[in-house]
Structures are given as C-alpha cells and as structure tokens.
## 1
Amino acid sequence: MEERIQYLLRQYLDNTCTKQEFDELFACLEQMDDHSPQREQLLQVLLDQPSAQTPFRAYKRLPAWLMPIAASVLLLAGAAAWVYFSPKENTQPATKPLAFQPVLKKSTQRSESTYLVLPDSTQVWLNAASTLEFPENFGEGKREVVLKGEAYFDVKHADKIPFIIYTGKVSTVVLGTAFNIKAYPDLEKITVMVKRGKVKVSYDNQAVAMLTKGQQVSINNTDHAIREKKLREEETNTWQDGNLNYDEYIMQDILADLERVYNVQIKMEDPTLRQFRISTAFKREQGLETALEILCKLTDTHVKFEKGIYIIQ
C-alpha cells in the first residue's frame, strides 16, 4: 500500500498522473485515519510541493459547502477543485480566430498532462504537448477557447451561452457535455469523440456532424474527408484514464503520439510503413516498450534502442 501511495505521489508531483491515478491518490487520503502520522506527512508534502508546471493560483477561500478542515487541505493539495487564473502571470499576446485579447494560456510539455477548471466551472484535462487559450473575460457573454493538441472537456451547462472550441478550421459547439478533441497539427486528422451529451462539429464554417453519446467524427487535414463512427463502450475510454486508443491511425501518427506521451524519440527506417493504417489500443501504464512490441508485430518489424533513439526497422 505504501509503495502504491509513493508511486501516485510521484506521478502527481511530476504532473504526469492520469485522472484515475489522481482520484486514487485522494481516495487513499480519505481512507486514512485523520490523525495518523502517515496522512499528516503526505498532506504536508502536497501542501509544500504543489503539482509541477502549474502557473495558476489555487483559490484558497473555501466554499461553504466544503468540510472546513479536511476538505480544505485536499482542495489546496490537489489544486483541482477551484482554479482561478492570474492575468498578470498568464496574459499572452495572440492573433486567433476569436475576437479577443488579452489571452490566457495554459500549456503542457511532452509526457505531461494537467487538469484545470475554467471560470465557468468547466473542467479540462489537457494532454501532453498541448495548449489551451481563452480570453481574460471568459464567460462574460461568451465561452470560447482555442486548442492545439488534445483535451478532454466536461462543459458546465449554460442554456444561453454555448461553449466553442476552435482547432484550426474545425469548431466544436456545445451547451453542456463531456467530450474529447484530438487536434495535434502534425496528425493526419482531427478527431472529436462524445462521452456524454451532444455537440455540433463544423469545418470551415460549415456544419459537418451532430454527435451524441458514443459517436466520433474525424476530419482529414489533407483531403478534408469526414468519417463518422459509432463507438463501442470500451472505445470511449479516454486518455486521461490512461487509455491510448488509435482508430484507423497511420503508423507515423501513432509513433508521434507515443513520442509525446513518453517524451522519447522514435525513428522508422522504412518510409513505406509510415502510412500503414492500424487500429489498436494500449494502456499507458504498460509502458512504451510494450506498445512498440505490439506495433512491430503488426508491421512485421523489430525495434532497437540506439543512442537514445528507438529505431523501428
């Protein structure tokens, strides 16, 4: 049990824990005796060392409905329930399809993911090597963000103010729902998957899909081909729970994704295999080597590690 808690704590402090690991860590805290030395030591570590790479300030005045002591410690330690943003620290000049400035910006590095709450209480899980931008006055009459990379959104319902995500020429409009958008600029396609509720997806200002629970649409960045699909239940398990799902992905895009997730460099010697199309899935906790072994079996190749680079040949 102690080894598991130490692992979860390292994941949290390194800003690499999944949502499932995050929930497990704080579930362990809640199960401990209130006055146990182990619980007090763990809470002190969390309070002294907030999650890495977090430029946002935690809101330290507690809502009345929270338990005054135990919940406040968890709130401050997790920095995950109420997050407010500092314009002075985060304002970045930007020219975007949205008519607003200044812009607040949150970014993650390779192998890093993070969780944040927008001023309207919308929850966002930002995946590795991704950026989310939104106006300083977010929520005042409009809710618009710009995403580069991948994020899972659980949008707070607001009848009269739609939530709009811009990813290049693709825009996704919702009122209140949970869904994932994958829109890394180097990938072949942009993908939107709905976990709960309904979203409208547009390309170049033209509506292309209306998605409900368990549906997915992908838009090819080159030929603009649109592909809708009804997903099986297991296919809707998302990355923030440690799932790496690839539905009809070309090999080079899967490898690019693994590079982001594990912060490594992968090279494929045979250029003809880069366009080889694969449908597969991994658990992040299985590790990079397991994922590469599976890919090599599917492509009749093998992998070697040389001078800090994984080479598939």
## 2
Amino acid sequence: MAAPSMRRRSSGFAHVYDRSVGLSARAFRDAVHTEEVRCLAPVSRDFIYKPDAKVWTMELDPVDERYLLVGTANSNILLYDLKMLDDNGSHMDTLTKISSSSTRRAYDTSNLLPPCCAVRARSTVTSSTSSGERSSLQYGITAVDWYPVDGGIFVSSSFDEHVKVWDGGVFQVVSEFDLHAKVYCAKFSRIASAHSLVAAVTAKGEVRLCDMAIESSIHSLFGHSDEIWSLAWSLDNEYQLSTGSRDGQVRMWDIRRSGSTACLLCLNHEGHAMVPGRSSVRTNIHRLPPTSLAAAAKPPPSRKRRRLLDGHTNNNTHHLNQESRMEREQKRTATNNQQGKRNDPHAAASVAFVTAHLGGVNSLAYTPDGRFLLSSGNDQKLRLWNSKTGEHAFMNYEGIKNQIAKRNVQMAVIQEGDAYDSTLVFHPNGHDGQLRAYSVFGDHGTPLTSYTAHYKQITACVYRKAYRELYTGGEDGIIMKWRPTALELCPEDGSSDSGEQQAALHGTTIGAADTRIVGAADGDVDAWSDDDADEQVDDNDPGDIFIPPILRQYQEGRH
C-alpha cells in the first residue's frame, strides 16, 4: 500500500488569530470545516472489515447519519451502527502519522465491528445445474437507499431483476417490484414532498418509476438505446433526474411527462446540450399477419382447384363483398390510429445522436446546491455540467482512472460553506484502491489529495456531514473511515519545510528580509533590527510574550 501524499493543516494559532480580528462566526466555522474536508485522511484503527464481503454500494441514514447500509456482491445487505466506532475511537490515529518511507500498512483488525443486522437477499428464480439439481441464483446488490422521510424504510436493487422495499426495523421485505430486467440502480428523491416514487434503471434502457403506495410500476421513460448504469435525482427539482448509459449518453428527465417529451436534454461533450428528437415506437413498414412455417411452405392451389373454389364462392359473393368492405374499413381505422400514435409525442421515444462520454457512464452526482452535475465514464474522464442548461463546463481533472465497472459506482461530492472554494469531489481512482480529491471549481485540475487505503478498487463513497467524515467501501471487504488530520497548535520545531508550508497555506513568505507571523495579515510585520537581538531578554516579563487578543480578554475576565 502506497504511502499517502500528506497535506498539512494550518496551526491552531492561525485560527485563533482569524477569529480575534473579527471574522464572523459563520465564516470562521465554514473556513475551519472547509480546511478539515481538504485534509481528510484514512484511520489505522476503528474501521469496518468483513473479509468475505465485496462492497458494491453504501448509504447513510438521512436523519441521524448513524446507520450505514451496505450492499455486497454476494447478495448480502448489512447494517452498521457507526456510533460504536465513535465511542471506541482513537480520533487522531490517522495514516498521516506514518513515515514517508513506509510503503505498506498493516491495519489493526483485532477488533472487528459486527453488523447490527444482516440479511441475504436471495433470488426466487431457480436454474437447473448440469446434474439436474435446481439451485437458487444469487445476484449482487447494485444499490441501497434510505427513504428520506422515514429512516425505518429503505430500498434495494439487484441483478435479480427486482426492486425491494424493506422495513428497517425488522429487516423484512414489505413490497417487491419485478421489472423483468437487470436493475442497475434504484433511488428515492432526497427533496420529494409531493411523491414517494422509486426511480430504477434497467438493462433494457428504461427508467421505471415505482410507487410504494400501490406497489406497482406506474410509469416508464424511454429513450436510451443501451443499458442504463447510473442514476441521480436532482437536488433542485423533485421531478427531475439524470441517467447515464453504457453507450455514453447522459439524459435529463422530467417524470411528469411521457414519451419523447419526458427527456429534457441530452448532454454533449462538445458543448451545448441537445434537445432530443422523436422516434416512433412502431415501425412504418406494413407488417403481414403472423403465419407458421408450414403454411408459408404450402404450394398454391392448382388452376382447376381455383375454378372449383370460385364456383363455390359465387353463391356468397354479396356476403363476401360486405365482409371485405368491413375489413377494409377496420384496416383504414387501424392505420389512422397507428399514424396518429406515430405523430403523438407522448407515444414515442426520444432519440439523440450526441454523447456525454466516449465510454459507459457509471457514476453521476449532483453538487449539494443542485446547480451542477458531475459524471464519470469509462473513457477516463470526469466532467462537469450545468444542471439547468446542460452545458458542458469544460473543467479538466487530471489523473482520472475510472474502473471499468459495468454498474453504478458511487463518488462523493462535498460542500462546506462557500460553494466555489469548498466544493470537493472524492473519486475512486483505478483498481489499486486509490481515492483522489478534486476541487470541483478549482483553477487547476490537479488532485488536492491522493491516498491508497484499500487493497482493491473502491466502489462506494459516502460523506457524514455532521462529523466531517468520509466512508469508502471496496471489494477488499474494508469500509474505511476518513477523518481530518490532527490540528497542531503551532508548527513543528526544527523543520523549515513545515514553516514554509504553513506560510504558503496562508499566502505569506518567510525569509531573512521579510519575517512574518504565520497566519498574520499582510500589514502585521514584525520590524526588528540586529541590535535588538543583542539586548538581554527577561523571559519572566509577560510583556515579551505574544498573547492573542481573544485569549487576553479571557484572562482579564477571569481576574
């Protein structure tokens, strides 16, 4: 395991100085939280490890952010209580304390955290083996999601073609939707207040909307021509969602519409989004009535046989003419109906020839403010889109290595305080368990941090906002916990590099001709001469000790 690329935090006195010079409480909090999420590092203890589990999907409960749902490749659904990790915790034991010469890390697995609940979601479909026995098929759990209104309900999707709604209190299925195709993802809308629909994407290229109230799939959105791998509900409009497919398309939908009108935009990596056109569900070619192979191979009757048949039918000519007129009228009516349906936009599918990626799109995520959409594809690109217009923002993120996974992969988008400075994306990078953090709106696309804390590829990332913690799950069975690095009250002694890093972090320089206090403003320069250094300094004189104003007020208040 590669040593982490270390990112140091500013000193504690820098925060005290910022607060003492009048920085507002909210701005101060946002600045501290932003710096913490920029300095997340994996812990070496108090993480979750289950050797036989390949984690495919994870989700935190939206109410308390305490319970973590985990779906695995072997059809297991696990529930972990993160409070047990919080109570155990060695909060400052992070991998950033490892020496830079260390290349491997032996994790502490002596105290494994057991799940609160575990259930195997077995498929009801059976198959016959070569020996004639019938065995139950098992498929991986592709997505889990909590119901945002009630933390006691969650939904799961699987390759067994089912979407299941679970009672979280007893871990039992309360309703089930058979979609007759592989289900790659199923999600609730986080901001929905007028509906409780579950959106599911399938291998048939359909977006299915399932209603828990009537336990039925009520609506389908057509337009994708290949498997749909990823799904994300808008965080700005409860009726809009985005999907990404195997052929590189990313589409934005309005679930209140139908047919070709449901697809609002098709994203284009070359710039402006495209409003999709309309294609008929039915073909324009006249279809003959179905017939059997034997009837098609039968030779036509002979001339004599036809004369006999004609003579036999002359008696019923008037009756046959009436029937033929009725049949022609019925065919004319059916043709008009089909032509009307072809011209009806609500009975047609949308079609477009633009792509957002040159490979399959296996990850979609909105920024927390809902203004932008991030997409990651198998073409090793991470792209940023305007969620209102669908326009490509042309942001370049260097070093993206998207795993070639033919299913949904979760990346985490974090926003603390100001949107421009604090919006970060944590992206699973490659097959070696690497995680990279990027500034979504940064001027440069270089990664802020790059860690390798897993032995195999990372498949899911979730952010615990109340604690500023990140959890990543991988196919090595590890669910890693990431915390901010330790806060130092003052820089380390005897390390010139540390002082330069601290000064660079605050935009100050350290040199012989210009000596500044770390964290001080531009005008606060300590002017001194060589003659002052020769004077005898009394260490017991409190006037020679720098005390920040906020601490000075605290001391005066105590006296």
## 3
Amino acid sequence: GIVDASKPHFQQLQEQLIGHGLNALGSLSETINNLHGSVTGSR
C-alpha cells in the first residue's frame, strides 16, 4: 500500500535528521569546549 511504499523514504529521512542532529550536537559541544578553554585559559 501507500504506507509500505513510503516507509523506506521515511526511514531515510529519519536517519538524515538523526545525522544532522548529531552534527549539530557535535559542533555545539565543540563550541562550548572552545569557549570553556578560552575562559579557563585567560585566568
């Protein structure tokens, strides 16, 4: 049916969203680490 046909597409979309989310989290934590490093380094 229609649902079965859209399932692979939905799964692919979900994986892409998760991938983007992980990338965003990674860059966010990297930014926090950089900020933290500059704050502690200036003491």
## 4
Amino acid sequence: MTAQKTLVLFLYLLLVYLPNQLISVDPCVFDLHAKGIIDLTGVGRVDGTPAWKNVKPVKDDQHLYSYNPCRPFTQSACINVAACQTYATDEKLAYSLGTQNSLQWTVAPGKDLPTLHYTTGERTLVVSLHCLSAGGKNKLVVHGLNPTTKLYEMTLSSKCACWDGCKGGHSGNSSNGLSGGTIFIIILLVAAVIYFIAFISFNKFKRQASGVDILPHRTFWVSLPGYSLGGVKFIVHKITGKETNYTPVP
C-alpha cells in the first residue's frame, strides 16, 4: 500500500469511523470530555412507566408510541423497554423499539449533539436531541417510521439535552469509564510518540544522522501537506459522488 493510500485510509477512519465510536455505555449520561455532559436522568420516570405514553406521530400511521429516557418501563407486551409501539385501536398489540441496554450514543460528523440509537430484533429507534433554554418544557415529537432509512425516529427537546444542562443527576449504576473513541485516540497518540522517539533515536545514534535527517521517513513527512489535501479532496468527492482526478502515487 502506498503512503498516499495509507493516509487516505487514516483520514477516512478519523472523519467517518471515529465519531461513530463515541459511545457511552450509560443510558442516562453521555460524557464527551471536549464538550461536557448530557444527563437525561431527570427526564425519564423511575416508577416503571414511560415519561411519554401513547403519543401520536406527526403523520398518523395508526400507531401510538411511548418512550422513557434513561430507565426501562413496561407497557402491555413491551417488557422492560426504552420505547414501545402499539396499535391505536388495540394497545395489546405492542412491539418493543429497543431496550435501555441496547442504547448507543453517537455523534455524527458536523453535528453538535449526540443521537440515541435503540435496537431490538429488526427494529431500530433513533432519538435526536434538541437543546432547550432554561425554563422550556420537556417535549417529545414522534416522527414514526422513516420510509427511506427504515428507522423509527423521535426528537426529544429538553434543557437536559444541552451540554452540561442538567449536571449532577448521574445514576448510581452508570459507568465512568472512557469511551471507545477516547481510548482509540489515546492509543493513537501513544503509538505516534513511540514511533517518533524510536526512529529519531535510531537515526541519530545508529546512523549518525543530524538535522532534519534524523526525522523518520523524512520524505513522507515533507510531502504530508500535499497528501493530506489530496486525501481530503478524495474523501469529499467520494461522499458527494463527484468525479475526481485523484491518482495514487506510483
């Protein structure tokens, strides 16, 4: 694999894959050290019932939806779920839209707030967050099934959906561990430091190099700005579907 192809792959990993790995194992709290904490502990009910029950979607689909952030609830055939879909004419016909244990918090590129992804069987629920100013009333908008993505969608508006909007309500059984994305970045930085120290030491003491010649793979690093620009253009063109005159290094 050429140096330019390697760099393109690396940039793709950082721009596309890494943001999706910012996942919290806590259904109540999402901690993104660079921005703050989103704590939904105070939004969900704790008595086993949903904070929002039998909500009609924006576009009527003959179903009603119930949702409770943070903690599970039970409604009809939906047992210990995060969200439930029922027929409007018969609440006994109910389907789970995901459990609290299935929750994944993800931050997509270009988005400020995370989204909550719940899964169960063949159904996936995506809850988008909307930050309300202090004093605003918590609100849930149900969009129902997206015919294009085949995902069930909701929007939760709350002061607690803001970064550091409701700090201090952290549940006792939550995890304070580092997210997968944070661990990946730490490993990447440590590997980079080891790489430079090892090669600089080898070039200086073994090869008796001096000046810029002690840098590892000096030719590559000198060409890095050009490679970076070419790699970013290549990724943008791939995403937008535009043609590109990108050519690999021979």
